[in-house]
Fold this protein.
Amino acid sequence: MRVLFATAELAPLVTVGGLAEASSGLVRALRAEGVDVEVVIPDYFSLPLANEVVRDIGVPSWAGPASVRTGTAQGFGEVTLVRVPRIERPNPYVDGDGHGWPDNPDRFFAFSAAVAALVHDRQPDVAHLNDWHTGLVLGLLDVDCASVITVHTLGYQGWTSGGWLGRLARNREAYEWYGGTNPLAGGIASADRVITVSPQYAKEIRSPEGGMGLDVLLNAIGDRLVGVLNGIDTSEWNPATDPFIAETYAPGDIDGKQANRTNLRSALGWPDDGTPVVGMVSRLVHQKGIEFALESIRYAGGIPFRLALLGSGERWSADWAHHLGHSYPDVIWFHEGYDRSMAHRIFAGSDLLLMPSRFEPCGLSQMQAMAYGTIPVVTPVGGLRDTVVDADDDRRKGTGFVARSVDTPGVVDALHRAVRAWRQPRRREAIQRRGMQRDWSWAEPARRHIELYEEIAHVRA
């Protein structure tokens, strides 16, 4: 089975959000199962490659000139990097103020044209696309190919001017959206299978409330829409082998977590005085419910807890977090940006992990947290609902705490219940062990993807 896998992010090479981790984890697992995967990403940073092969590729004049570099990237393996005009940026999506680059449609549509050219040249059994950045590929192909598009988040659709429609080779009507061009809608309408990254999210996006304007389309494609829960990369996120943490540990012996708790508190300048630390590693955007987390700080003394926040995103949220960090340094620590080492230390050293998302297609942090014996506190949406069992609702199977409502009161109540349970050592350890013993790897999701690939490739044969 030969798969061309195109994505805008790939950990650890280009990491902005969960798309990077999901893409990397799935590709590694597919390769481990023997699938021949060519992974294609934009060449944002002129990343160095070993054994590099460079060649030009033919794309329409509006998208070129275009070239690709194929070689081995440190920390990942073989990858193909696409260079098209203006693709190179310090951040794939936003400028220093957190505003989207105004030419994002031009950049990613040119990338899509290059991906379409690669599909034509490589003739894979399946083209696997991801999110709106590659959605236009199926409108630019001049060959027939079995196709999958994964919707990691429906909130970003890449909608832009209708002037792009005239450049499409096929399926123009699928991409036309109220006079404009919607690459995600077109990709969904054109693909043989549409995968969402959790079963619950596949249900939610068929409703007007969760469909982000695409619910009618998503209902129309029927059983072509499939929910497959993501996994996590257990070679990266494994407390038994993690090189970034103070002391390794495993489900059968979690004593090492205490050393990581002490190490994290020391790094953040906080005493180990019995106040639980709530970790949060997140993009600072509306979807992630960042204001619910920041508003909860006013209640931190009464619950009590401290918040360690790592992430970047919209300027208003970062400014608010900085302000709180300066005003209440004993309650909240904030680092703007992504620090790989600190992310690992937060997962290992925190007592609880907070994910107060408004919607969450899958979420990886809650699974990473449970793998590290850190108890998740989440909202009842998407993949969070699929992966976290509320320990107050089910005392025998509970793995975390689920808010009763998606708002600040709901989040504060869930935090209060989680801290109360955390203060009971036997109950706390039982919850931790249940989360650590689950198989959160990509093995089963990869096998499910292979089944889907084989289904559509067989139909196309």
Notes: The CA atoms of residues 83 and 141 lie 19 Å apart. The chain has 16 helices and 17 strands. The two ends are 13 Å apart (CA to CA). The chain has two domains: 2-231+442-460, 256-437.
